[in-house]
Amino acid sequence: MCLTELISDKARKRAPGEEHDPLTRYFVSGVAVTKPKSFLLFRLRRLIYFASIQLNVINRRLVMKFVLLFVSCGVFFFANAADTTTKTTTTTGKHAHMMMKHEDFKWAKGPEGLPLGNEIVVLDGDPSKKGMFTIRAKFPANYKIPPHTHPSVENVTVISGELMLGMGPKWDETTMTTLKPGGYASLPQAMAHYAYAKNGAEVQITAMGPFAIDYHNASDDPRKSNPKTLK
Asked: In this structure, are residues 20 and 12 in contact, taking their beta carbons and an 8 Å threshold?
């Protein structure tokens, strides 16, 4: 008698209410195992079934890993996008666009660091603080600024009139260059220079603050009794 017949016979002879032992339950549960051929088919089906379950588990795990990776990448991308948007908004908030008509300029008395008679208007920034600023200045006829230096680069554009510029610690009108409207000069930091508006001029100055002016000769400084930074 084969193994399957012994197990089947054992199953038929069990007492009422008696449970099958695990081995018997495995062979007889849900399948009539009466022949070796049927037994082999049963084992093969069981093997295929359990293999498919394992493959499904593996596939589910791979899919879950892919989904988690995709979600993580999406969260990272949108977080960076939101961060970029925030930075752009913040920058724009600190420096909103501005337009000013020349006739709307509110001219005021120039700083004590310059000879009397000039007028300025601050177009952008704050000359007394760290950072870039732009001012517009008007000089009357025969206005002179003696040799001086600045702690930062000074960029000058002539708007109207004529401005004569000279380089060096000593005034020499014969070596000065005359800039007409549209003329431009970039004056390096700590380099001595001087200016002369023979017939008056309006200029635009851009530099990095805090802006200061130091005269080569102390006697030329209009603030010599109370020196202070340009503001």
From this structure: no
